[in-house]
C-alpha cells in the first residue's frame, strides 16, 4: 500500500468486528470529508490463532464451528462514485462489556495444562437475550415504520399493565408474560444473522419473528462455510445476491453479535439494480449456488 494509507486493526472484536469496522470507516470518511473518499473494510477469521489443542471439552466449540474466511467491502463518501450498490441507512452498536457477567460469558483462558482456549461462560444464552433486548429497542427507533412503532408501544404498554394488574386466577401468568416483539419484516427485506451454529440461528430467527426464508442466508452460509466470524455477514449478503433476491429499493439488515458482549447492526438500502449473470459468478457461491438451499439444515 502507499505510505499515506491509514490502517486500523480491530483484532479481538469477535463476530461483530465487521460492523465495527464499517463504523470506524464511516466516521473517518465523515471526519475527513474531502481528504479521504474511500475506505476498505476487511473482515477475516483466522482459526489458527484460537485453535485449541487441549482436552477441556468446554473449549472445543471454536474447533467445531469456526472456519477461516475473509471478505472486503469498499466504502465511499462520494455521492458521484460509481457503481455504488448500497447506501448505509442505519448503524447501531450496543456494548455491555462493563457488565462483568456479560464480559465473562465468552473469554480466552488457560486450562489445567496451560493451553489457551476460548470458553463460553454459564448463562451466555441469558446474557445474549438481555443484550439483544437492549439493542433492538435502540435499533427499532431508527428502522421501523411509524405504524409499527406505535403498534409496538401500545402492545408493550398493554402487556406491562397486564403484568402489573393481572387478575387473581392468572396473576402469575400475567406477570411472566413476554413483552411483544415488533414485526422486523416490515423494517427490512433481507436478513444476515450471526452464523453461530444452526440451533442459535433458528433460536434467534424465531425470536425475531422470522421465517425459514429470512433465515436461509445464515443457515446456508453456516452449512457451506461454517462460522467465519465477522466475515460471515458478507458471505450471507453474497448468497442473497447470488440468488438474485436483492433488488433496487430493498433493505438488508446485518446483525453481528460478538464477545464482550456486543451487538452491532447495519441496515443497507440497495440503490443499484440486481446482479446480472456475470456478476453472480464472481462471488464465493459461484460454483455451488445452484445446490442451495439444502433442506433439513
From TrEMBL:
<protein>
    <recommendedName>
        <fullName>very-long-chain 3-oxoacyl-CoA synthase</fullName>
        <ecNumber>2.3.1.199</ecNumber>
    </recommendedName>
</protein>
<dbReference type="InterPro" id="IPR013747">
    <property type="entry name" value="ACP_syn_III_C"/>
</dbReference>
<dbReference type="Pfam" id="PF08541">
    <property type="entry name" value="ACP_syn_III_C"/>
</dbReference>
<dbReference type="InterPro" id="IPR016039">
    <property type="entry name" value="Thiolase-like"/>
</dbReference>
<dbReference type="GO" id="GO:0009922">
    <property type="term" value="F:fatty acid elongase activity"/>
</dbReference>
<feature type="domain" description="Beta-ketoacyl-[acyl-carrier-protein] synthase III C-terminal">
    <location>
        <begin position="189"/>
        <end position="269"/>
    </location>
</feature>
<dbReference type="InterPro" id="IPR013601">
    <property type="entry name" value="FAE1_typ3_polyketide_synth"/>
</dbReference>
<keyword id="KW-0012">Acyltransferase</keyword>
<comment type="similarity">
    <text>Belongs to the thiolase-like superfamily. Chalcone/stilbene synthases family.</text>
</comment>
<dbReference type="InterPro" id="IPR012392">
    <property type="entry name" value="3-ktacl-CoA_syn"/>
</dbReference>
<keyword id="KW-0808">Transferase</keyword>
<dbReference type="Pfam" id="PF08392">
    <property type="entry name" value="FAE1_CUT1_RppA"/>
</dbReference>
<dbReference type="GO" id="GO:0016020">
    <property type="term" value="C:membrane"/>
</dbReference>
<feature type="domain" description="FAE">
    <location>
        <begin position="1"/>
        <end position="158"/>
    </location>
</feature>
<dbReference type="GO" id="GO:0006633">
    <property type="term" value="P:fatty acid biosynthetic process"/>
</dbReference>
